[in-house]
């Protein structure tokens, strides 16, 4: 298959799917290996960036998706102005952070970290497609395990969980001391 046709096939596939498509599936589609396919997709993304187009290709955890360019968001917002806006509460953001950094994680583990019930927050995150059930823990009661979704990666602008910011051990100790002081817990000297 010639290069121009490969690009057309990849563009049509990504447009039609709407969601991300794994690089292996795209490579099979154009009868190339993964690295050649990735190079073609990068070239397509560069062409889209250089021209005045409203779309681009985004890489998400070894998969690609066709998306609107961020410069087009203000126009898309105008188009969807009257639609309901969904925001995350502080408790939902805290819960999401715990899930992102500790996944796979059970509700009990989240509640242990937060100190409060997290049912509502987890249900909202699942409804917003930021969190999903990953399976069940092989333990008494077989509790559900939760993890983040590709939508989480898209919304937070990261390609993989490895790109999430890391907190240094010094910062972690400072946060722990501050939390203990706020909770009125005596810190042994």
Characterise this structure.
The chain has 189 residues and is an alpha+beta fold. It folds into two domains: 70 residues, Arc Repressor Mutant, subunit A, CATH 1.10.10; 94 residues, Winged helix-like DNA-binding domain superfamily/Winged helix DNA-binding domain (Arc Repressor Mutant, subunit A, Orthogonal Bundle), CATH 1.10.10. A three-stranded antiparallel sheet has the order 1-3-2. Strands 4-5 form a two-stranded antiparallel sheet. Helix 2 packs across helix 3 and helix 5 packs across helix 7. The chain is elongated and about 70 Å long. The model has no long low-confidence stretch (mean pLDDT 87).
Brief sketch in words of this structure:
The protein is an alpha+beta fold and 189 residues long. It has helices spanning 3-17, 23-30, 34-50, 73-79, 90-102, 107-114, 119-127, 150-156, 169-183; strands spanning 21-22, 55-59, 63-68, 131-136, 144-148.
């Amino acid at each position: 298959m010639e290069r121009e046709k490969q690009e057309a096939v990849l563009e049509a596939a990504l447009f039609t799917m709407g969601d991300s498509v794994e690089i292996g599936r795209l490579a099979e589609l154009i009868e190339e290996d993964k690295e050649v396919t990735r190079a073609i997709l990068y070239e397509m993304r560069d062409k889209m960036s250089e021209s005045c187009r409203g779309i681009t290709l985004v890489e998400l955890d070894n998969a690609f998706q066709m998306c609107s360019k961020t410069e087009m968001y203000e126009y898309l917002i105008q188009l969807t102005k009257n639609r309901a806006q969904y925001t995350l509460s502080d408790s939902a953001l805290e819960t999401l952070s715990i899930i992102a950094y500790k996944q796979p994680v059970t509700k009990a583990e989240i509640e242990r970290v937060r100190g409060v019930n997290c049912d509502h927050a987890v249900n909202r995150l699942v409804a917003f497609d930021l969190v999903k059930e990953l399976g069940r823990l092989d333990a008494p009661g077989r509790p559900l395990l939760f993890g983040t979704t590709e939508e989480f990666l898209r919304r937070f602008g990261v390609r993989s969980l490895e790109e999430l910011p890391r907190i240094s051990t010094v910062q972690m100790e400072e946060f722990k001391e501050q939390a203990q002081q706020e909770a009125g817990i005596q810190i042994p000297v």
